[in-house]
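pls design
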């Protein structure tokens, strides 16, 4: 079998000892693995902190039949009725069947409502592992049927130590550790992103510093600067920053703009919060996320350019 060339797959943990994460929930998961049975689990937390890796580790360790579904691709009620229900209903020679629903927060409300019934109907033979970034998008009746575990990100020191181990295996020469520190500081807690940036920086067995690799990490701060001092060219400047960033998932930017709202809002925190919420919600249904984001930026700039009424 061909060895993985992507570092995120090559170094995906095969056991809990390899998993970079909080010890408390690792102890909980180990108890499940020791008895070859699990509760229905709902794993949630920030992107890149190991939710999918942990789910795959569990099903690969258990003696079970398994079904993996990425709910961002298959999010409708037909997936629940056809694929999941059929899998849960079929016979098995294994003591357990496990369904992994990755990115379950993308499931429609109807699909989630149907899933809760299947969880109860096949509770004797089938377990479910749901992963999500935003637990508030998972309906309460589904949450109550699962053991909910927040995947807390490892510390920066743990992330750096893990990446250092990867680099020692991948490089022919010693590397400048200050660059690794920059990568960790810029992308923490997204370990997956750190690994991807490191891979793009490895050339002919060397870890080569390249400022261009880090350009997309600075785009949030540069957008904030533009919003703090808006000009007639701000929309075009921000549009260029977005284009140069090579970022595909803007969810983190919405949160960043909300967390720093007081720095640029000019006292319009409430209305700008409503704008951010509206366009973040729209992003779940839009095909072109960049256009949706720029529409949001246009609305924010419109508010910032209004004269303050006393």
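designed seq:
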């Amino acid at each position: 079998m061909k060895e993985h060339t992507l570092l995120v797959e090559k170094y995906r943990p095969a056991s809990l000892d390899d998993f970079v994460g909080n010890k408390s929930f690792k102890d909980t998961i180990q108890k499940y693995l020791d008895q070859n049975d699990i509760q229905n689990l709902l794993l949630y937390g920030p992107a890149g902190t190991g939710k999918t890796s942990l789910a795959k580790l569990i099903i690969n360790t258990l003696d079970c039949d398994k079904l993996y579904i990425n709910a961002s691709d298959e999010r409708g009620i037909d997936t629940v009725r056809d694929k999941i229900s059929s899998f849960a209903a079929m016979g098995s020679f294994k003591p357990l069947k496990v369904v992994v629903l990755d990115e379950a927060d993308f499931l429609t409300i109807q699909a989630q409502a149907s899933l809760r019934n299947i969880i109860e109907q096949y509770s004797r033979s089938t377990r479910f592992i749901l992963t999500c970034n935003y637990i508030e998008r998972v309906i309460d009746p589904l949450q109550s049927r699962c053991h909910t575990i927040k995947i807390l990100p490892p510390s920066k020191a743990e992330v750096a130590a893990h990446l250092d181990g990867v680099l020692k295996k991948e490089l022919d020469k010693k590397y400048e550790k200050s660059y690794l520190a920059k990568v960790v500081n810029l992308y923490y807690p997204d370990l997956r992103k750190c690994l991807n940036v490191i891979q793009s920086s490895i050339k002919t067995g060397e870890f080569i510093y390249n400022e261009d690799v880090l350009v997309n990490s600075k785009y949030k701060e540069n957008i904030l600067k533009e919003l703090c001092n808006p000009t007639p060219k701000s929309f075009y400047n921000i549009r260029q920053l977005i284009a140069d960033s090579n970022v595909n998932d803007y969810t983190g930017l919405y949160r960043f703009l909300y967390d720093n709202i007081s720095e640029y809002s000019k006292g319009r925190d409430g209305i700008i919060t409503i704008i951010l919420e509206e366009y973040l919600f729209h992003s779940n249904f839009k095909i072109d996320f960049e256009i949706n984001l720029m529409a949001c930026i246009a609305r924010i700039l419109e508010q910032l350019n209004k004269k303050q009424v006393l």
